[in-house]
């Protein structure tokens, strides 16, 4: 063994600080307890000055309220091909294999060029109980965990006010984090299985093969690590100075310890410092007759700080900042350490590599709230105010599918809509801004992930895409051989479907008969009820297989009402309107005789191209109604995107707008993600139902907008002035992606094969 090796190989289990994990709590040697919060970052850079001030104020209030230390850990793990290339060309249908291969090449290129990384933010909440007797240990454990949970709840509330969503890790999640952190390569080859947590002792499961300490490196299994400590800070720090660590592209852990110091302990120290500076100033002045300007400034600062501490305007903290870099290769590790030192130096910060303390550095950056180094600097609230450690885009983690790049940083933007509270999305842009291209690329990548897609296509823009991937295409027009039957119920409809069907037919007729008087509308509703009753169809599911009524039955019923009863004249007027409708150019919508045949898997496009304007909106409603019925009746709840292009045709009418709103509200229950696309932004925002659809969409994708639409968009989406200017001047295919309680700039990118299909 070389002379640089100072440590010795020991049983790695014995060197683990963790002894137990239960009740969502880490138990460490010495009786310490820890809870770990997983935090969702927020992108402060895209916020305006007022929003940034609100975030910093909430962070300052959190610091002022701290009664205990906390540790913030940023864990960076480079993405590998296996993280991204979840689509194997031979695992998709033959027509999709070329697209799968092209998408795979794009991801591999991004992985190599952009060096994609996973980033996780953690906050560790500690509890270090006093020394206790062994016989009282069980009782004290319960009270300790209760106090720790109270601390955790308070911290979660404070983080939420700063725009950071935080969630405590469960026992299984804690085991998973430690297992993959201590065994990064093994964790990829041998993922944790549920039985592993019961069949293995915790330390045997977590411990690497061996630990080995040397002069300037610490090895955990087959990974070498090196830790740097920040030892000096400039006089002034700017907001987001911690971004220097976000630029790391190799495996790393950044640990920030923030420990409040009681004011009654800080004041005596400050008084001694003031006395020393004053004495030194007097001595210098007496000897040289000159005032030491630097010491005078330090004295003024110390006295001003003393006054703020006394008035409770400031608090004193100990701050410790460490970075542990990790690599299998010693040369690469040294190069990354040099790059980080250079970047820190550019911020006027001093750092040093640890020597003979590598093991202590290793454990000090683990999410265990164990500062075994103690390299700290005093800092006030004013200094810590700009040390907001959660300012980052939450879209860089390669999960879900690729949506594009952040044009300002070149970082990729990934998103899994089905991992959000709902999978709905709204795509808004003026004509020619690239919205259809973006949606087509999303559809292709969704198909590669096994997500089914149904498209309501009023312009025929998606027909070629469907044919390219051997999807199902159905055209609906007056000359179509199969026109959906507006009156028919599905054979697998659930109880209550008859009432829903009558309401849908009534809404369709209201669109086809604009300006229908209320008195005639009431007779129409009664007639619809009667024709289903005549056929024996009720809300009992056993009656749904019976022959449905037709438009001729409705005309006969209304004609009968026109011959007797108190509303004869109103019924005759309604009959004349309805007969004129049936015999006119829109009558074909009421004379369909087929149920739409939509495959259970893959891509289905229902095209409505070349329809006259007065027919397009009701035709879209009819097709959407039947599509939605198909999704409600399918046996498996497979993940599905329901795409409505040119949705402004629907949201202009109150009845159809309410129907789209109902779909948005209930889509999640059916494992469906609704995608609403429109170029008439003001029509969508002018409708209450349109605003509700937006409110029930976890994702909003905004491309180039007309200047007149910006004020409405700003009010609806909370856009800042810079974001409004960005949307007015955005190039084709660029915009803003909003979701996950965060937002980022987006430039849509596609592989060669995807681009060829999306441009059709």
Descriptive terms for the model:
elongated; 24 strands; nine-stranded mixed sheet; 43% helix; 13-stranded antiparallel sheet; Rossmann fold; 760 residues; alpha+beta
Folded structure, characterized:
Helix 15 (435-448) packs across helix 28. A hairpin with a 4-residue loop joins strand 7 (211-213) and strand 8 (218-220). The protein has 760 residues and is α+β, with helices and mostly antiparallel strands. The two termini are 65 Å apart. It contains 28 helices and 24 strands. Among the domains are: 12-78 and 118-262 and 314-385, no CATH class; 395-474 and 636-760, Rossmann fold (3-Layer(aba) Sandwich).
Strand content: 15-25%
User: Structural class of the secondary structure composition?
Assistant: alpha+beta
The residue-averaged pLDDT reads 86
Total count of strands: 24
Number of helices: 28
Largest sheet: 13 strands, antiparallel
Sum up the overall morphology in one term: elongated
Radius of gyration (CA) equals 33 Å
- Residue share in helices? 40-55%
Unreliable spans: 1-10
Structure described in brief:
The chain has 760 residues and is an alpha+beta fold. Helices cover 43% and strands 19% of the residues.
Which secondary structure elements does this structure contain, and how are they paired or packed?
Blueprint: E1 18-22, E2 25-28, E3 33-40, H1 49-65, E4 70-78, H2 81-84, H3 94-113, E5 117-127, H4 137-161, E6 165-168, H5 171-182, H6 184-189, H7 196-199, H8 202-206, E7 211-213, E8 218-220, E9 223-232, H9 243-246, E10 252-261, H10 263-288, H11 293-310, E11 316-327, H12 330-346, E12 350-353, H13 358-364, E13 377-380, H14 381-385, E14 401-405, E15 412-415, E16 425-428, H15 435-448, E17 452-457, H16 463-468, E18 472-475, H17 497-512, H18 518-534, H19 551-561, H20 568-583, E19 603-607, H21 613-633, E20 640-644, H22 648-651, H23 654-666, E21 672-678, H24 681-686, H25 688-695, E22 699-702, H26 710-717, H27 721-728, E23 734-739, E24 742-747, H28 752-758
Parallel strand pairs: 16-21, 16-22, 17-19, 17-20, 18-19, 20-21
Antiparallel strand pairs: 1-2, 2-3, 3-5, 3-6, 4-5, 4-10, 7-8, 8-9, 9-11, 9-12, 10-11, 11-13, 14-15, 22-23, 23-24
Helix pairs in contact: 1-4, 10-11, 15-28, 17-18, 17-21, 18-19, 18-20, 19-20, 23-25, 26-27
């Amino acid at each position: 063994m070389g002379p640089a090796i100072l440590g010795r190989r020991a049983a790695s289990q014995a060197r683990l600080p963790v002894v137990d994990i239960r009740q969502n709590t880490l138990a460490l040697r010495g009786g310490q307890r820890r809870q770990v919060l997983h935090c969702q970052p927020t992108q402060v850079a895209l916020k305006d000055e007022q929003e940034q001030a609100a975030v910093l104020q909430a962070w300052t209030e959190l610091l002022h309220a701290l009664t205990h230390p906390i540790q913030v850990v940023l864990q960076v793990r480079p993405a590998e091909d296996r993280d991204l290339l979840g689509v194997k060309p031979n695992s998709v249908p033959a027509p999709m294999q070329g697209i799968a291969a092209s998408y795979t090449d794009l991801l591999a290129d991004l992985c190599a060029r952009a060096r994609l990384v996973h980033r996780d933010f953690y906050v560790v909440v500690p509890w270090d109980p006093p020394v206790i007797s062994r016989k009282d240990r069980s009782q004290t454990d319960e009270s300790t965990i209760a106090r720790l949970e109270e601390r955790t709840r308070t911290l979660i509330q404070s983080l939420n006010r700063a725009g950071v969503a935080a969630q405590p890790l469960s026992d299984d999640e804690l085991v998973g984090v430690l297992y993959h952190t201590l065994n990064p390569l093994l964790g990829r080859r041998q993922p944790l299985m549920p039985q592993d947590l019961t069949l293995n002792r915790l330390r045997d499961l977590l411990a690497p093969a061996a630990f080995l300490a040397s002069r300037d490196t610490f090895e955990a299994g087959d990974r070498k690590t090196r830790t740097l400590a920040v030892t000096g800070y400039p006089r002034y720090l700017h907001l987001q100075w911690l971004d220097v660590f976000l630029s790391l592209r190799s495996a790393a852990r950044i640990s920030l310890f923030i420990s409040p110091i009681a004011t009654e302990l800080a004041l005596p120290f400050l008084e001694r410092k003031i006395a020393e500076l004053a004495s030194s100033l007097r001595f210098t002045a007496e000897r040289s007759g000159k005032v030491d300007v630097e010491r005078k400034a330090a004295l003024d600062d110390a006295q001003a700080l003393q006054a703020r501490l006394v008035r409770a305007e400031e608090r004193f903290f100990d701050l410790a900042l460490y970075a542990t870099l990790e690599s299998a290769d010693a040369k690469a590790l040294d190069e990354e350490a040099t790059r980080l030192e250079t970047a820190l130096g550019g911020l006027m910060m001093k750092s040093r590599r640890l020597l003979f303390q590598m093991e202590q550095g290793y454990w000090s950056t683990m999410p265990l709230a164990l500062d075994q180094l103690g390299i700290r600097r005093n800092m006030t609230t004013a200094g810590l105010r700009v040390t907001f450690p959660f300012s980052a885009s939450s879209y860089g983690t390669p999960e879900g599918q690729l949506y594009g790049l952040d044009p300002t940083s070149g970082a990729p933007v990934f998103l899994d809509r089905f991992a959000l509270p709902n999978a709905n999305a709204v795509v808004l842009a003026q004509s020619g801004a690239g919205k259809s291209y973006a949606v087509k690329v999303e559809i292709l990548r969704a198909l590669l992930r096994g997500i089914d897609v149904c498209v309501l296509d009023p312009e025929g823009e998606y027909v070629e895409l469907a044919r390219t991937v051997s999807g199902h295409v159905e055209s609906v027009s007056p000359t179509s051989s199969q026109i959906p039957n507006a009156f028919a119920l599905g054979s697998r409809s659930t109880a209550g479907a008859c009432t829903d069907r009558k309401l849908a037919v009534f809404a369709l007729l209201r669109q086809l008969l604009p300006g229908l008087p209320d008195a005639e509308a009431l007779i129409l509703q009664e007639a619809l009820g009667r024709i289903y009753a005549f056929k024996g169809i009720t809300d009992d599911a056993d009656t749904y297989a019976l022959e449905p009524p037709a438009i001729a039955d409705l005309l006969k019923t209304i004609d009968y009402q026109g011959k007797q009863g108190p509303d004869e004249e109103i019924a005759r007027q309604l009959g004349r309107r309805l007969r004129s409708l049936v015999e006119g150019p829109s009558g074909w919508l009421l004379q369909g005789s087929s149920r739409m045949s939509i495959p259970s898997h893959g891509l289905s496009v229902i095209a409505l191209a070349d329809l006259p304007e007065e027919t397009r909106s009701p035709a879209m409603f009819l097709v959407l109604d039947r599509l939605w019925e198909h999704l409600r009746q399918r046996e498996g709840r497979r993940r599905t995107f329901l795409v409505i292009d040119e949705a402004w045709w629907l949201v202009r009418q109150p009845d159809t707008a309410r129907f789209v709103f109902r779909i948005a509200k209930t889509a999640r229950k059916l494992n469906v993600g609704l995608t609403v696309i429109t170029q008439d932004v003001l029509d969508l925002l002018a409708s209450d139902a349109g605003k509700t659809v937006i409110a029930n969409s976890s994702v909003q994708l905004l491309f180039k907008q007309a200047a007149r639409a910006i004020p409405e968009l700003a009010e609806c989406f909370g856009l800042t002035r810079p974001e409004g200017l960005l949307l007015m001047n955005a190039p084709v295919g660029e915009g803003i992606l909003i979701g996950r309680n965060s937002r980022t700039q987006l430039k849509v990118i596609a592989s060669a094969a995807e681009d060829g299909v999306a441009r059709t």
